[in-house]
Amino acid sequence: MTLSSRDRLPIGELSARSGMAPSALRYYEELGLIHSERTSGGRRRYRRATLRRLAFIRAARTIGLSLDEVSACLARLPAGQVPTAAEWSEVARTWERRIDDRIAELQRLKAKLTGCVGCGCLSLTRCALYNAGDTAAERGAGARFLIEDD
Fold first, then answer.
1. What digits encode the pLDDT tens for the residues 9-25?
2. Distance CA 106, CA 51 (A)
3. Which of 52, 73, 82, 100 is the most buried (most CB within 10 A)?
4. Are 103 and 46 within one domain?
5. What is the pTM of this model?
């Protein structure tokens, strides 16, 4: 099947349509997440199906998948054509647990922030975020008191 020039998007149009910066598109191409063809002048042209792959990448990143995980998911989909509904669905099912975990994490964070920001306790001995003696460092990097259950 020969694609017309209408079926190929220059990087600027792909950027505008996807909402992603051209630098991100070039990076994703470098990683093999998307692919382009080159014109005789060396300019990138992307198939329209790339828009769906970019939407997939954005969704995957939103739920917290790493680019390596995104790559593994995309490797299960056809690169040169729009995946079927069944192919998309199969990959999306693998995300369900991740989404549920992320929702639970955000609900815990919301509960802790709501209680903390609104408590007005002004007491370092009762404050859930007070980190006396930097004890949170033993638990790992990040805001441990906000992202852990206890």
1. 999 999 999 999 999 99
2. 29
3. 73
4. no
5. 0.66
